[in-house]
Write a structure and sequence with these properties.
Order of helices and strands: HHHHHHEEEEEHHHHHHHHHH
Largest sheet: 5 strands, antiparallel
Number of helices: 16
Number of domains: 3
Helix content: over 70%
Shape: elongated
Radius of gyration: 64 Å
Strand order of the largest sheet: 1-2-3-4-5
Number of strands: 5
Strand content: 5-15%
Length: 475
């Protein structure tokens, strides 16, 4: 920028100040130029500056109008956009609220569907468990198909269609069994053979008539098979039952236990079947028990053959030996049963000895007879102690078999495990059955033998005392 241009700009912005500066700066200007020229020049500059200012102001006014118009349009567009934004924001909040309501409604519907599905599955399970055991073969395929369809990954519509089919099947069954339902079926006999014939379901009971129409019986649960087991009845009941199956009329045997009593009776079997379940250890225990019983019979016979003379009989034998001779007294003494006769005969033979020697001689007979009187008692004691141990051994053997079967078949096969468990319990039972009576008999025999020995000793004391008294009186 040159000096002239700078001066012009200063004059346009602050003309009075520029004039004052010029006047103060050039005090001697009148010498060089005249004041009028300066004034005219200044006026010219002022006019030109004013013209430039007016032209610039006009240009600004011309450019301001479209800018204001554009700004107004922009402000109006901004207001419209703000209004749209508010409407979109309100719509977004409304949509979010509706989505939340739909989610809650969806959760409620899911809960309802889950409840209905759970109730349907419970109904299906109860229907399967409540149908008569003889009807399992009739509805097995249908129930398996319904269960597979309900548990599959198919849409809910098909799953609930399966549950509806189960409900319809239940209604049809309820109508069918009101007066008794009859259908062709199979049953498993006592020997495991399968019989074909007619099955009749009447209330909670089921009956079976074979194809020949000759044998009839009641149905019961048979494990590991969908066919029930049949227990054929004798001719009298079978005829009435056959008439009921064929015509729907007749006398039928009703079991209030629904087959449980019959199954219990069949499971128990006879005594020999029960004993065979004890296995080898059970046979050993039974052998010990039989021998212990025979020994007990021998001891009873021995004890029954024992008798002791009374005080009067002892005095009579003593008097007879002293007056009539020892031979006649010995003959009478030997008629006394048991060891007491030997004791009295020994006393009569040695009655001339002194009292102490006579007593020792008679007691020696008692001592020699004591082992014979106590014979077989150790065997009874051993049997009473060994039988529970053998029962425990059988229990261990049975448990070993049971765990071996668990290793092979797992814990879900009760029929495979029942043999080992039965052997374990039966041997314990047999051991206690043998041990308890044997222990009681051993104690009883020991007590009786001790009392007999005391009685023999008393006989010896009485004979010695009687003999001494009679000898003292004779002197």
């Amino acid at each position: 920028m040159d000096c002239r241009t700078f001066f012009r700009s200063c004059l346009l912005s602050h003309p009075s100040r520029v004039l004052a500066i010029v006047v103060l700066a050039l005090p001697d200007w009148g010498v060089a130029q005249e004041t009028s020229q300066i004034s005219e020049e200044m006026k010219s500059l002022v006019r030109s500056s004013l013209d430039a200012y007016r032209q610039l102001e006009s240009e600004i006014a011309q450019e301001k109008t479209p800018l204001v118009t554009r700004m107004s349009r922009l402000e109006e567009g901004n207001l419209q956009l703000r209004a749209k934004l508010e409407s979109y924001r309100f719509l977004s909040e409304r949509i979010a609220t509706e989505i939340g309501e739909l989610n809650e409604e969806g959760k409620s519907l899911q809960d309802q569907v889950g409840y209905v599905r759970s109730a349907s599955e419970t109904f299906l399970s109860k229907f399967e468990s409540r149908i008569n055991l003889s009807e399992s073969q009739r509805y097995f395929d249908q129930l398996e198909s319904i269960r597979a369809q309900a548990a599959s990954e198919e849409p809910l519509v098909r799953q609930f269609a399966a549950f509806a089919e189960a409900l319809q099947l239940s209604l049809e069954r309820s109508e069918a069994i009101l007066g008794g339902d009859r259908f062709a079926g199979k049953a498993i006999g006592e020997q495991g053979s399968i019989h074909r014939g007619q099955v009749v379901v009447w209330g909670p009971s089921g009956f079976f008539l074979d194809e020949d129409g000759e044998r009839a019986g009641a149905l019961s649960y048979h494990s590991d098979a969908i066919e029930p087991g049949v227990s054929f009845l004798d001719a009298t009941y079978a005829g009435n039952l056959a008439s009921f199956v064929k015509t729907g009329e007749g006398t039928v045997p009703l079991d209030p236990t629904l087959g449980d009593a019959l199954a219990l009776e069949q499971s128990q079997g006879d005594v020999f079947t029960h004993l065979r379940r004890g296995g080898l250890v059970g046979y050993v225990i039974l052998a010990l028990g039989i021998v212990a019983g025979l020994v007990s019979l021998l001891k009873i016979r021995d004890l029954k053959g024992f008798s002791t003379p009374s005080a009067e009989e002892i005095a009579e034998l003593s008097r007879l030996a002293r007056e009539g001779g020892s031979d006649q007294a010995i003959t009478k003494a030997t008629k006394i049963r048991g060891v007491a006769g030997d004791v009295m005969a020994t006393g009569i033979r040695n009655m001339r000895k002194n009292a102490l020697l006579l007593e020792e001689t008679m007691l020696s007979v008692v001592l020699r007879a004591k082992p014979r009187m106590e014979r077989y008692l150790p065997f009874l004691a051993i049997t009473a102690a060994a039988s529970p141990l053998l029962g425990l051994l059988g229990t261990v053997v049975g448990l070993i078999k049971t765990f071996a079967l668990i290793t092979l078949y797992g814990a879900g096969a009760p029929n495979a495990l029942s043999a080992g468990i039965s052997e374990a319990l039966i041997t314990t039972e047999l051991g206690l059955i043998v041990a308890i009576p044997t222990l009681i008999l051993h104690g009883l025999f020991s007590r009786l033998i001790r009392s007999r020995i005391v009685a023999l000793e008393q006989v010896a004391f009485d004979f010695v005392e009687t003999t001494n008294l009679e000898l003292a009186e004779a002197k």
